[in-house]
What does this fold into?
Amino acid sequence: MKKLKTHQENITYYKRIMPIVTNRRYKPSFFLIMGWIGLFAVLVGFATTFIMPVSAGTFKAPFVIYLHVTFAFSWIILYLTQTNLIHFKSYRIHMTLGYLGIFLALGVAITMLPAGVFQVKRDLKEGLGDTAISSILGICTAAIIFLALVFGAIINRKKPERHKRFMLLAIIVVLFPAWFRFRHYFPSVPRPDIWFACILADSFIVYAWIWDKMKNDKVHPVLIYFGLLIIVENIIEILLFDSNSWRSISKIVYGFLLSVFNNYV
It folds into this structure.
């Protein structure tokens, strides 16, 4: 007959296995948390301008706008899925879905352009004049930066520490429009382009620096250099927006994009 364990033996046993049990608990990574924050930003930010109007049947827009929303939302969901797969060590599925990520990233960036043209045409009808056209240049730079970050993630796919940080920055960039729409909830806030589209949106880069320093005792070069690049670009855009030179370039860009996408918007 098997001898029963003494009380002290039981204590020793549980002390030995508890670290194993604890390590199996679900501890979401910073990257996964950022994915959930991104989903929150999209659902809340676009609630009043897209989600609720579409649900009520009052939102009218060309098909390409719905296509852009589909690509962007799918990108957020894929990011959440991919970070979960890494957490559960499902590397093969993660790599397979990576090919879908390339397709979605291209879809997000390309459809940004006709979506921007649609926005300019709508704002021109509302009487915003040249200021409406000025917005197109920022949309184009956002698309370029987003694709550059995704490309960085692709070429560093075999270097996880770089890859996941490029992907994190790509998510942060694609969320800028969602954070900017938080201005509808706080109409009394002056200069929403500064407080929501720059300070709020870019603050997550700073949070990433702080997390990296606390977790790894240093901030990874990808977050430092490319994060700074994003912040500097946003500041330059705010300083130059709607200036004479900015308007001139925006008109050229808008004229070209209008000739390409006019039939779709």
User: Anything to note?
Assistant: Residues 31-264 form one domain. The two ends are 81 Å apart (CA to CA).
